[in-house]
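Format notes (please read before filing issues)

Several people have asked whether sequences and structure tokens are stored in separate files. They are not. Every record keeps both together, in the order shown below: the sequence lines, then the token lines. Line labels are part of the format and must not be stripped during preprocessing.
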Amino acid sequence: MQQDNNTDFEIRSLDAICVNESHLEHKWYHNSKYLIVGILFGIVFVKSEVVSWFRIQEMFRLQSFHMYGIIGSAVVVGMISVWLIKKFNIKTIYSETIEFHTKSFNKGQIYGGLLFGLGWAVTGACPGPLFAQIGTGATVILATLISAIAGTWVYGLFRDKLPH
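Then the structure lines:
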């Protein structure tokens, strides 16, 4: 009997990042607002020292609350935002419904989290502020960026064989 590689398509489609992706077509300059917000976000990262290798090392050595406070406040803001979206059935700016799908916990998330944390501790760079770090002149972070891209590619290559 031939095995169909797409038997779990319905389940895997819910695992995609762009479940709520809009199908609207826009002009090329429409996404410039994201560039502006990204630049402002990068400035906030630099000013709050989130991109500081020393701050990241303090966090992993449990020497300072600074990074835990920033990460914790981001988690709280995210939780409140999701709760508000669900409670008031908030739609996108284009009146599209926002859908949340439940995801089950599995051991692959533990392995991935440990690998992510190890990489973060060794390089002093989280994927979020990579570009802000490069923008501050820390060009050595280009090696981390290339490694992150390569790691994402390798994950995509071996995803079906990994514990999910």
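For reference, the curators noted about this record: The chain has a mean pLDDT of 84. The CA atoms of residues 106 and 164 lie 6 Å apart.
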